[in-house]
Amino acid sequence: MTIAVSRATGTDRESWNSYVERAPHATPFHRLEALEVLRDVSDTTLHLLVGREGEEVFGICPLFEGSVGPFSSVRCPPTEHDVPYLGPVWLDVNHLSQRKQEMWNHQFVEAVCEWIDEEVDPDHLDIRTVDRYPDVRPFIWADLDVRPAYTYVLDLEPGPEEIKRRFSRSTRRYVRDVDDHDIAERGYEGIEYAVDQYHERYENAGVSVELCKALYDALPDGCVRPYVLSVDDRFVGARLTVELDDTIYAWVSAANVEEAEVPVNELVEWYAIRDAAERGLSRYDFVGGMVPSLCRYKSQFAPVPRALYLVQRQRPWMRGASMLYNRLPERVRSLV
């Protein structure tokens, strides 16, 4: 038997989040609530694909059908909202032999690609995998353009003190008095501040207050955390994080560095890292590792570069169409 892919309806749709919970490398954006929020803000059609062998579910893949300019598109995620990666995920398949994992993955990716071509046949295809997707070779074998990009991931398992010991000397000095500062989760206020400051920093930023508040409301408590540093009752820095299972993602960063005489970024970052480690999470994803100036900042925390993959295809008449590239947010262009 082979892996068959179909749209999730009825029981499969109702079971979608249970599939996500069984997928070790899924992100909070894979949850149905988050996918529906992204569908609504991006004005796309959401397709939830489930791949199974017989009765056993092997993998899931959400897809967003829409348009980019005059071209039809299938994307995962819709990148104009600064969601960095999504893509297909396997369920827990540790009980399978290596041979069967590779065979089923090949069949799963092949069936997803066939579904896209038969049901949508888009001009443009753009899938961005998570860093832990086990094997992207079937995308290459399907004659798709597969390129690596990078993010940074910090191992939280050693615990806060050992994590801090690995920081650069100056960073350890910056964060040693973190408990003397007013840092807390600030709900809607924190979301508004973080996103507004992010837009001041990135002119073409795509993430919106509307999106972040909708995710904050829709996802389970604690999935979205707006950490904010205040000085003299003024917000001066923030990290808007999202999390699922073992990983927290530093999604939106904001700081009024010029208005504060403290190391704003390092203090908020360390507070979020320490909090995640103390709550038992094992990975802190800095969300991005392709901009040299930001790499210099992130590397001071001693994370490890991790590869993710951009899977793309353009029809011949789209090649060279600069309008596609120009519609992408500046932060997302850095991944391309």
Overview of this structure, please?
- It is globular and about 60 Å long.
- The mean pLDDT is 93.
- The protein folds into two domains: 4-149 and 309-333, 3-Layer(aba) Sandwich (Aminopeptidase), CATH 3.40.630.30; 157-281, Aminopeptidase, CATH 3.40.630.30.
- Strands 1, 2, 3, 4, 5, 6, 7, 8, 9, 10, 11, 12 and 13 form a 13-stranded mixed beta sheet that branches.
- With 336 residues, it is an alpha+beta fold.
- Helix 3 packs antiparallel against helix 9 (209-218) and helix 8 runs antiparallel to helix 9.
- The chain is 35% helix and 29% strand.
- The longest helix is centred in the N-terminal third of the chain and has 22 residues, at 98-119.
- Strand 3 (56-68) and strand 4 (71-76) form a beta hairpin.
- It contains 13 helices and 13 strands.
Specify the helix fraction band: 25-40%
Order of helices and strands: EHHHEEEEHEHEHHEHHEEEHEHEHH
Estimate the mean pLDDT confidence: 93
Portion in beta strands: 25-35%
- DSSP E strands, number: 13
Question: Count the helices. How many?
Answer: 13
Query: Considering the protein shown, what is the CATH homologous superfamily of the largest domain?
Result: Gcn5-related N-acetyltransferase (GNAT)
Rg from Cα:
20 Å
Report the CATH C-level class of the largest domain: Alpha Beta
Q: What can be said about the biggest beta sheet?
A: 13 strands, mixed
- First and last CA, distance: 37 Å
- In one word, what is the shape? globular
Q: Which residues form runs of ≥5 with pLDDT under 50?
A: none
